[in-house]
Every structure is written in structure tokens, then in C-alpha cells.
Amino acid sequence: MDSLVQSGSGKRQFANRAIAFAKRAGRFPRFPLFELNCLAATALAAISGPFGTAALGWPQRTLFWFMLMTWAVAKWRLWFAWRVRNRKDWIPASAVGAILLNLPLPLEIELTLRLVGAEASIGRGSVWLSALAISVVILALILALRWLIVLPARPRVARAVGPLTRSGIRIDQVAAVRAEDHYCRVCFADGSTRLVLCRLGDAVAELAGLEGARVHRGAWVADWAVDRAERAGRAWRVIAAGQTVAVSAAHVAEARRRGWLNRR
To answer: For a pLDDT cut of 90, what percent of the chain falls above it?
Structure first.
């Protein structure tokens, strides 16, 4: 009986993990209109016939690029769902994926050509290098957009010197603050933390010029640092710069007003 119970529990855990992974795969990558952009790239490739595909007939060329791009979207979605947990994971995941996910590309191209009824020999090395170069360019564009558009700017605020500033902390780099006895644990974007001898009220007062809010009587979180929210029963918690911070019932309304509970 115990073995049956353990087996059933294991199956439930596996199912829950599979469902959670499917949910992550459905929301990554977080680029606006990702599939629509890939569809536009497919249409452009079908019209212009790059990389020698102009020799294919119009129906074959369109089907070839549609199948190849659809597979690429699926690969990248699954890759990001596996590797990305917060904002700092994006760049390493993109860089590694540009190499690993492009490795089988020559074989995928040959297989797709066969599926659309075309026979062609390709230079596998040159195809892989071309794909790697394109990935590097795309990654550079993503980096540029990340700093210029996608991520909210972290404002630099000139304020009176408080306990955080006196401790050598740049307040515009603070992701979250949590009270621990007579200290405050200050969390930063890179996941590091630091203990500062001060009251939470004094720290929050010093951070008043930043976009952020208290989510608990013992915790404050910066708006730019909130990656996502999770719910366990009736309780909410936010993930900010890799730190899990509980949201008390008294502060749920403020977190919802700021849109934090929708970042899932």
C-alpha cells in the first residue's frame, strides 16, 4: 500500500512539474508578438529567397521557410522555458542557445528540403557559421533594445543621506529590502545581499523616490526588480532579483495595482 501511495505521489509530482514547465514554455521568450515577428520573417524569406532558396518554386519556398521557422520557434521557446528563471538569465541563455541550438541546423535544413520535395546539397560548415553570425547580430539587437526600451530604467535619485547611502549602497541598485531583527537585508540585482544596521522604516524613507512599495510589514520591493508573482493557496509572493518575498494580505491590493501579480 505504501508503495502505491508513493507511486501515486510521484506521478502527481511529475504531472505538476510537467504542467509548470508547459506554462513557462508558453510565456517565454518574453518578446512582444514573438510568433508574429517570426511569421513576418518567414514571409520576407519566402518572398526574397535568401541562401539560395530562390531556386525553389514559390509553394516549396514558402512551405520550407514556414516549417523551418516554426521548428526554430518551438526550440527557442522550450530552451528559454528550461534555462530562464529571471532577467539575469536571458543573456547567458541566449548566448549558449545561439551555439547549441544552431548545431543541428544544417541537418534540419536538409530534412526540411526533403519534406517539401526538394533535393539540394548544402555546405554544412558555412550554413552553421552563417546561422551563428545571424544569432550574434540578433543578440546584439536584443541587448540594445533591452537597455533602451524593454527594461524599465532605474532612476537615479538625489536624496538626503540615509543609512543605506552611509553604508556605501547606491539606492538605485536596490532590488528589495527585508527586515531581520535590528538589521535590514538589502538585495541587489545580481542576487547578492548585504546586512545594514538600520530600521526598515528608515530604509523605506530613503527609497521613497524610487518606484516600489512595501509588500509586507517587513519587506519593500523595487518595481523594476519584480520578475514574476506566484500564488500558493490564498497567499501571494513575488520573485524579485532571485529573492522570494511574501506579500501580506494587507498589501495585495497595492501589488495588484502595480501589475506585479500579473507577472507570472
So the answer is: 17
Work out the percent of the chain whose per-residue pLDDT is above 70: 75
Q: Which residues of 139-152 are buried (b: 16+ CB within 10 A; e: fewer)?
A: beebeeeeeeeeee
Whether residues 39 and 136 share a domain: the answer is: yes
Residue 3 within a domain: no
Cis peptide before 92 (omega within 30 of 0): no
pLDDT score for 178: 93
Q: Where are the alpha helices (DSSP H) in the chain?
A: 2-27, 34-48, 58-83, 90-100, 105-115, 124-145, 163-166, 200-206, 252-257
The string of pLDDT tens digits covering residues 178-220 is 999 889 999 998 888 999 999 999 999 999 888 899 998 999 9
Amino acid at position 203, single letter: A
* DSSP three-state, residue 244: strand
* Contacts for 163 with CB less than 8 Å, ≥ 6 apart: 184, 196, 197, 198, 202, 203, 206
Q: Which residues pair with 247 in a beta bridge?
A: 236
Task: State the Cα–Cα distance between residues 208 and 172, nearest whole angstrom.
Answer: 11
Sign of the Cα pseudo-torsion (194, 196, 201, 206, in order): negative
Q: Are residues 209 and 141 in the same domain?
A: no
Contact 174, 187 (CB under 8 A): yes
Residue 5 lies in a domain: no
Question: By the 8 A CB rule, do 172 and 153 touch?
Answer: no
Neighbours of 158 (CB within 10 A): 5
